[in-house]
Amino acid sequence: MATLGELERATMDLLWESPEAATANELRELLAQANPAAGTGDGRGLAVTTILTVLSRLEKKGLVERERNIRPHRYRAITSKAEHTAELMHEVLGSVNDREAVLARFVGSVSATEAETLRRLLGGV
């Protein structure tokens, strides 16, 4: 699973939060509202072609799907943010030789509430 750049992550966050598919223009407007300083530096904001490029990359990464039956095309996240995050965690665990050490370090850094959640999810182990 590929990691996300800053603009890809911001775009995915919008798609994960939205129950509806969105057009590139809608996403561009939402990104501008979320971060008015982003863009070209001259107050014009991000170009819609930039957003379309980002969406194309996200589609190639298997994170979004494009509704091609209408114009303008609409985009939606294929998986949830939780599913994506879990995949990233699996990828990281798969890339180390000592998974137990990584898991121990992770578990040692969680809050008491998170530890209780882990116990419950693991069936009281």
Automatic annotation (TrEMBL):
Family: Belongs to the BlaI transcriptional regulatory family.
Organism: Arthrobacter sunyaminii
Swiss-Prot/TrEMBL keywords: DNA-binding, Transcription, Transcription regulation
UniProt name for this protein: BlaI/MecI/CopY family transcriptional regulator
GO terms assigned for molecular function: DNA binding
Record GO biological process: negative regulation of DNA-templated transcription
Source taxonomy: Bacteria, Bacillati, Actinomycetota, Actinomycetes, Micrococcales
